[in-house]
Design goal:
The protein contains 14 helices and five strands. With about 375 residues, the protein is α+β, with helices and mostly antiparallel strands. It folds into two domains: about 5-190, no CATH class; about 195-375, no CATH class.
Amino acid sequence: MNQTESHNFSLLLQNYMRDIRPTDRLPKEDMRPVLMGLFGEVGSIMAPAKKLHREKEAYPSYQAAVEEEFGDTLWYFAALARRLGYDFASIFLEAFDARQSTMFNVNDPTSNSALNPAITPSTLTILDDALVALGTAASALLLLEDHPEQPLVLLHTFAQKYLLAISASKVDFKLIVNRNLSKVRGRFLVPDPNTLPTFDFGFHEDERLPENFEILIKQRSNGQSCLQWNGVFIGDPLTDNIGDPDGFRFHDIFHFSHAAILHWSPTFRALIKHKRKSDRAIEEAQDSGRAIVVEEGLTAWLFARSKDMNFFDNQTSVSFDLLKTVHQFVRGYEVEACPLKLWEEAILQGYKVFRQVRAHEGGIITGCRKDRTLSFRPIN
């Protein structure tokens, strides 16, 4: 690399290292969870990378999957370098030799091809070799605690194999860095309320989700759940629709949680007839049938998962894997802009209220968009 390229590359990684530091919640003195996490993420790279290379157009979703797994691997590698006291950017800079440096373009930080190999391997054999070499380098790092005299050599080797695997997988290094940064900060850091999206600002009141709302949930003698908003019945009476009753008849609570905390719920908009009809494009893309199906499908899937966790009772967090799946569900819709930390809050608050309503067989649900809260009180 020339001096300018080295500066841009180093700055990219220094900024990444600085900005992800607050997301590292693993024990500071214990390298084992970091090493195990790194090894696991390298293994997670291999399946989507192979499918991306083999199937090409048939598996467009694997491009994003490969980028995400490479990003997670980078996070663990940065955590390892931090614990060992080495400069993260320098490790990568020294991983290049004169031949490898010509494979990367770092001059244009705005280019989609920035840090993406300009000359990439095109055969499965080369991809196989690159991924196996990366796995071997990760395996060597697992033994780092047994060979404390040579950590820098092992780190340099891993960085080199990591970059070559990126080249073989034909993915964009700069994009990997930035996407991972956005994902982990959105997952672990409490967001600044001023930076959170609100999707119907500027629309007429009749086209906005209400700033404050109360929903009365009653259970009839036949077991059906009914909703009332401002004294008017909304939606249809619901039952659990399953042989073993589980409370799904109260699942609209989750739509209310989405509305109050995420400022998004095409289902709730439809129930109270607050679609954004003044903007036909937004109504069609964000408020109509397909968006409603996505939210309903996500709610049903998450409910099925939650049953194995006692509906998140006594839990203060939601697993990263589950949150990533939630994000995949809503990809392409406006709520994709909400950080994972906000989704976690919507899930935990929603299920807390659900457990209360289920226990009381009804109740009054209060939502506040300003405070992004959902709460419960008994009917009597």
